[in-house]
Amino acid sequence: MSRSPISATLSQTDRDALLQAIATIKEQLPFLIDLSNEERKALPKMGDKSRAFVSKALEVATQNPEFLPRSFDLDEMRKDVQLFEALYPLLLSLTQLQELVDDTSLAVGSEAYAAALQVYNYAKASGQGGGLETVLEEMGQRFVRKSRKVKSQSATL
Asked: Residues 44-71: pLDDT tens digits?
């Protein structure tokens, strides 16, 4: 993987503006819901193949409503399909944006961590006291591994 390091800043003003833009998006979508993992797993999913199926089913239902039971709400189905189709491009765009933000955050975090490791190693190697012992010890806590529990003596008996 060959890529250039990221050298950018995000001002507090720009960050606030972006957060406000996200808040505005949420306000424009007041019907959004938050499903639990269990609810998510229980729902049938509509992917690309299912989109064509749903579209055909809506057309069949629209042209032949006489075979549907009275309890079937064709208008509600139509609204669901229309909302799904309206949300789909937003989903694709936001997913792409999230992936870009996630990748950039991962790369910048990696760069920052690599630089921090260099600082730590240079400070350790410098051999200079200068009050660094305490901070180096604190930084070194990042690398302390928890000892694995020793098997109980009763298991060996």
From this structure: 999 888 999 999 999 999 999 999 999 9
Q: Does 77 score more than 70 pLDDT?
A: yes
- Residues 58 and 77 sit within 8 Å (Cβ to Cβ): yes
CB 108, CB 6: distance < 8 Å: yes
Answer yes or no: are the C-beta atoms of 138 and 116 closer than 8 Å: no
Count of residues in the chain: 157
* 140 closest CA partner among 122, 125, 120: 120
- DSSP string for 22-58: HHHHHHH-TT-----HHHHHHSPP--HHHHHHHHHHH
In 3-state terms, the chain is what percent helix, strand and coil (to 5)?
70, 0, 30
Radius of gyration of the chain (CA): 28
Rounded Cα distance, 144 and 142, in Å: 6
Contact 107, 6 (CB under 8 A): yes
